[in-house]
Amino acid sequence: MINVTNLILLAIIAAVAFFPLYYVIVVSFTEPSEFLQKPFVLFPSDWSLASYEYMLSSKAFMRSLGNSGFLATVGTACSLVVTAGLAYALSRKRLRGRRLFMFLITLTILFSPGIIPNYMVVRQLGLINNIWSLIIPALASGWNVILMKSFFDSIPVELEESAAIDGSSDLSTWFRIILPLSLPSIAAFGLFYAVGYWNQYFTALLYLNDASKWPIQVLLQNMLLSANNSDLMVSSTAVQAPPSTTLQMAAVIVATVPILLVYPFLQKHFAKGGMVGSVKG
Q1: How many other β-carbons are positioned within 10 Å of the β-carbon of residue 74?
Q2: 3-state helix, strand, coil in the chain (%, to 5)
Q3: What's the N-to-C CA distance of the chain in angstroms?
Q4: pTM of the prediction?
Q5: Euclidean distance between CA atoms 245 and 238, whole angstroms
Q6: Radius of gyration (Cα) for the chain, nearest Å?
Q7: Domain 50-273 falls in which CATH fold?
Q8: What does the domain layout of the chain look like in residue ranges?
Q9: Is 97 helix (H, G, I), strand (E, B) or coil?
Q10: What one-character-per-residue DSSP string does 159-225 give?
Q11: pLDDT (tens digit, 9 = 90+) per residue, 126-155?
Q12: DSSP secondary-structure letter at 72?
């Protein structure tokens, strides 16, 4: 009896949690004329791709999607190189001043400079209204560096010594031996960085004034606040714009799906990478 009750409660909780996503999907595929007649639709009688067709033909939306794609790919690659390189260097005991560097990195975790100092640094670097302002200040996370360092600590030093005997330089050893062994941690942190860059919103509002450089999240926010989305997304076709609500729901789906598709490709390494920094008995 208790098991049946638990199953019923879990089923109700799951249904409540899944319903908003279901509603977003349903509305995005609803025929615009049907949605205008009955705005609250649980199961449309006519399914339509009109909202997706209009939205994907919009230069503004595709440009924002491209900006987010640039951030997620280039930003993630740059962050992984900086994080992995810094973590590997800190894991080697022969590095002079290693404890000082670790102390400074730990300070960045404990104390945040705040919005105004960050903005002043970005302005002094001349990155205002530049998409690189969303990448360079966020190249490395102190927490991620420390976690990845603990992974590099577990790699035997004898591997480097053997490579050095064979004539391999430090840089060659890092690329040819250390990085291949670090694929689980790189996959895990790569996913974290990719999600963070894809969801860039607040920093984009601070540093980007040009609408052509907005990532997809900023465009979505403006779509939700705008009473008429045609001001933000003008389709290149002569098709009449669908209702703003269906456009918003379709935009949410399109903005969510790409980052969800990344996980299956990293799942192989993600389980191992998720244990980075854990205590082993």
Answers
A1: 14
A2: 75, 0, 25
A3: 40
A4: 0.80
A5: 20
A6: 24
A7: MetI-like fold (1.10.3720)
A8: 1-48, 50-273
A9: coil
A10: HHHHHHHTT--HHHHIIIIIHHHTHHHHHHHHHHHHHHHHT--HHHHHH---GGG--HHHHHHHHHH
A11: 889 999 999 998 888 888 888 888 888 887
A12: I
